[in-house]
């Protein structure tokens, strides 16, 4: 029970203090009293905690994937990597990460079991399965498949998009595409209008920025046209093209990613030089800014791939994943690189960033649980009046 002095502290002040703490510490405070439990569980506080973390760039983690193993690295402390116990069976094969958003990871195993999982709360939900896409006319085709995971802020819903495409080996015009979207709130898959864009890289996941998922695509495989970037808006359900920066040579290989909440583009010039561009104002071509350039002379050995992950606390450095083997700091002021030393990393790995959150995947249900949450929020509203 709360002591008498503590009982006099307004709930909004308590919320403003504890929302700055790591998620695991906050979850322990649910045991203080029923009032604190209700406070921490209510949607206002959950959103406030995530907002504070994003604004202050605290409580961010690297999620490291090596085959079927996942590890986490606290970016506030740069402690040694710690193994995560994920909720899926591995069957001796790899685990795929199809995206991270608002503290929720979307992961899948070789049996195509899909889970939405919050590593901070250790809660998850298994999604309903989909039958594999197949063409049964006997004609050999290239099969491309990609997923993208994000949060639809318009409809307050986590969504997973699946794109399946068949392309004729001899005739690129022999093209068939299927698009489905999963809604966590409705808890079902729904077919939506397909796209004529062709996925440029098979199995590359969609990048979530500004309520949309992004892919590098081509308009026509047979015409040798330059690649494009398209965005699927989770709110409107439509595909739209994103203007590209003024690259020195459009024959380079391009990829998209996210850095500091902004869409970024990685231009690969024959694995000799890599440029990283950042779109400071979403959708505005003039806002593209070339953030950094790395070349062969900056590294020991070859340079096959570069993936931007996060800024340093001061914003003066960018953490890069080099060749899926080591983490590198790029100093934006001196334009030099040096190793980011983290113990416990595997020999080769993929990496994603994840912000800690208290979001419960069970909260997104169209059932009486939502009504109870709203009643609980109303109960707290007299003492919890912080503007989010």
UniProtKB/TrEMBL annotation:
Domain F-box residues, every copy: 3-48
InterPro entries: F-box-assoc_dom_typ1, F-box-assoc_interact_dom, F-box-like_dom_sf, F-box_dom, Gal_Oxase/kelch_b-propeller, SCF_F-box_component
Leader peptide range in chain numbering: none
Pfam families to which the protein is assigned, alphabetical: F-box, FBA_1
Organism: Cucumis sativus (Cucumber)
The protein's name: F-box domain-containing protein
């Amino acid at each position: 029970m709360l002591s008498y002095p503590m009982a006099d502290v307004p709930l909004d002040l308590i919320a403003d203090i504890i929302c700055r703490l790591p998620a695991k510490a906050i979850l322990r405070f649910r045991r203080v009293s029923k009032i604190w439990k209700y406070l921490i569980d209510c949607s206002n506080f959950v959103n406030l905690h995530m907002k504070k973390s994003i604004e202050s760039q605290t409580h961010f983690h690297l999620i490291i994937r090596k085959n079927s193993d996942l590890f986490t690295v606290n970016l506030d402390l740069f402690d040694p990597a710690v193994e995560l116990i994920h909720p899926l069976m591995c069957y001796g094969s790899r685990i795929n990460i199809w995206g991270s958003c608002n503290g929720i990871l979307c992961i899948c195993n070789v049996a195509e079991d899909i889970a939405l999982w919050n590593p901070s709360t250790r809660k998850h939900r298994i999604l309903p399965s989909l039958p594999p896409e197949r063409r049964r006319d006997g004609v050999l085709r290239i099969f491309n498949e990609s997923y993208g995971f994000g949060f639809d802020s318009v409809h307050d819903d986590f969504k997973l998009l699946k794109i399946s495409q068949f392309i004729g080996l001899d005739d690129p015009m022999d093209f068939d595409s299927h698009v489905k979207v999963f809604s966590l709130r409705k808890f079902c898959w729904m077919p939506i209008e397909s796209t004529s864009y062709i996925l440029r890289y098979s199995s590359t996941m969609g990048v979530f920025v500004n309520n949309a998922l992004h892919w590098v695509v081509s308009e026509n495989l047979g015409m040798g046209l330059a690649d494009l970037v398209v965005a699927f808006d989770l709110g409107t359900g439509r595909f739209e093209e994103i203007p590209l920066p003024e690259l020195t040579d459009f024959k380079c290989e391009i990829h998209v990613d996210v850095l500091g909440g902004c869409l970024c583009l990685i231009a690969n010039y024959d694995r000799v030089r890599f440029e990283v561009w950042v779109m400071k104002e979403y959708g505005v071509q003039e806002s593209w800014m070339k953030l950094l350039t790395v070349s062969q002379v900056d590294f020991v050995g070859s340079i096959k791939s570069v993936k931007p992950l996060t800024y340093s606390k001061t914003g003066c450095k960018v953490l890069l994943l080099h060749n899926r083997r080591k983490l590198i700091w790029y100093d934006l002021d001196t334009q030099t690189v040096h190793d980011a030393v983290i113990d416990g990393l595997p020999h080769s790995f993929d990496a994603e960033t994840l912000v800690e959150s208290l979001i419960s995947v069970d909260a997104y249900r169209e059932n009486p649980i939502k009504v109870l949450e709203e009643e609980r929020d109303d109960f707290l509203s007299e003492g919890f009046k912080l503007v989010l």
